[in-house]
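If you are new to this repository, start here. Below is one unmodified record pulled from the training split, so you can see the exact layout before writing a loader.
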Amino acid sequence: MLSAAHDILKHQTAPENNSHVDPEPTPIPHNSTSRYDCNAVSTAPSSYPLWGLCCWFPSGCLFPGSYDQPQCYFLLLKSPDSLASQRDEVFGSSTQQPLIAGENSKPNFNLSLSFSDRWNVFKGLLKYIVPLALVYFAEYFINQGLFELLFFRNTSLNHAQQYRWYQMLYQAGVFVSRSSLHCCHFRFIWILAVLQFLNLGFLMAAVWFGFLPSIYLVFLIILYEGFLGGAAYVNTFHNIAVETQDEHREFAMATACIADTLGISLSGALALPLHDFLCRSH
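And here is the target side for that same chain:
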């Protein structure tokens, strides 16, 4: 959805009687008064495209999206009772052997933590949650607020192609860094947050002053941006996994997931007005 956001916003209409969308429909005119070649709506936030961009498509496209979600929830997912009975059958079977010698005890699936335990675990996670949220805030602020505005006219790539390349290079950087845990570990995630905010500041200045001479410099920066984001993510959860006690690990890992969601949501909320302000001011 992120990679296609610019195309979806640009091609908001399609022939009513066609069963498929023309790959090159007539685009809606952009803001001709802006040097950024802005769309009327920002590509942010990332959760917006599913229900906000979909409204430009025929109702048949939107209906399956709203219909399939409850269908999957109520019909495909198994209830906890059925899962519990299957689990009991597995552990009650004589054919099952322990993975580790001497491991004959049945895992405690009913382990619960008190509020005090959860609060103490949460406080210990703040040193990871806060930096990870900041990393994701900075990188998604770049992705959702600045990518479309980093537009170069002196290149063979049109605006939509430039945007897709930005997204692809970002994801490539994320992929490489998330696969590099066996090579290098980052203990202090806040360093990655500082570096990502330096990226944000530099690209914000580049958008405002337009001093970058080539799109290829932006390509390198975005690849680096993706690397920082992926490294922050994988190292955060690795550090939590190795530092948390066994009985707290599941809760800790689940709680840490709020960091990236919080960062992305806040960045989307701020990227929308930023996009509008820059497009009006230039």
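Two things worth knowing about this chain: The two ends are 27 Å apart (CA to CA). The chain has two domains: 5-76, 124-281.
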